[in-house]
Amino acid sequence: MTHAIIFDCEFLTATGAMNRIWGGPLDPDPSVAQIGAVKLSLDPGHEILDTFQVLIASRDRHGRKAVLDPFFTELTGIDQASVDRDGIGMAEAHDLFDKFAGDGTLWSWGKDELNLFAISCYVEGFAPKMPIQRFGNASGLLLNAGMPREDVASTTSGRLADYFNIESAPRRQHDALDDAMSVALTLQLLLRTGRLWPLEFQLPLTVKTPSG
To answer: Can you tell me the distance from the alpha carbon of 145 to that of 79, in angstroms, rounded to the nearest whole number?
Structure first.
């Protein structure tokens, strides 16, 4: 294994949907509308090898085009015109993501694969190709690197690089590629400083018991 894939997803939402666990009568199914990913080398130097981003023209459970809620657009910067122009089908997006990932393990800040596959594929009626055993929770890597548990719990993917004072190009929170890059740059730093080791990116991840 020569690389790891750090990815993030933006999925459909509306005002208050998170508090309702997407259970309100007008809440959309939380299907993925954007995937962003970073290919991080596990070889010495730990360079950023490549990036990937795609917009998805989601369909609802009845096959109708999903219409973006204004709250989602305000949160992510993704508008309906962009999705109508550049969005591709869910199945095609998954195939492209699978090809980009190659044989690397896949890591998100939490468990984005559940929205990416368990929800999105179910809503659109096809079986995912990428098995769940390929996915790991990057927050466990941060615990292993010594980040306090309370800080892991309170830090979002988009703020992780800021937490470690990593300077880079400006990023927009709730943009899938920018959030993935924030996590990838953090993992790169931890690898380069010896707080993480490439072998820790094998799955299943063994998370050290945190103190406190």
So the answer is: 37
Rg (CA), the chain: 17
Amino acid 66 reads A
DSSP conformation letters of 26-80: TPPP--EEEEEEEEEE-STT--EEEEEEEEB--B-TTSPBPPPPHHHHHHH---H
Q: How many whole angstroms separate alpha carbon 57 and alpha carbon 64?
A: 10
Is 32 within 8 Å of 78 (Cβ atoms)?
Answer: no
> For residue range 47-73, what is the model confidence (pLDDT) as tens digits?
999 999 999 999 999 999 999 999 999
For 122, the 3-state DSSP assignment is: helix
Query: pTM for the full model?
Result: 0.95
Q: What is the pLDDT of residues 113-160, one digit of tens each?
A: 999 999 999 999 999 989 999 999 999 999 999 999 999 999 999 999
Say how far apart CA 169 and CA 190 lie, in whole Å: 19
Q: Beta strand 105-108 with 135-137: parallel, antiparallel or unpaired?
A: parallel
In 3D space, the residue among 171, 10, 3, 14 whose CA is nearest the CA of residue 93 turns out to be 10
Place of tokens 């939402």: 13
Task: Sort 159 into a burial class: Cβ within 10 Å, 0-12 / 13-18 / 19+.
Answer: middle
Give the 3-state secondary structure percentages of the chain, helix then strand then coil, rounded to 5.
Answer: 40, 20, 45
Question: For 90, how many CA atoms within 13 A lie in the half-sphere containing its CB?
Answer: 27
Which pair of structure tokens corresponds to residue 120? 């999105």
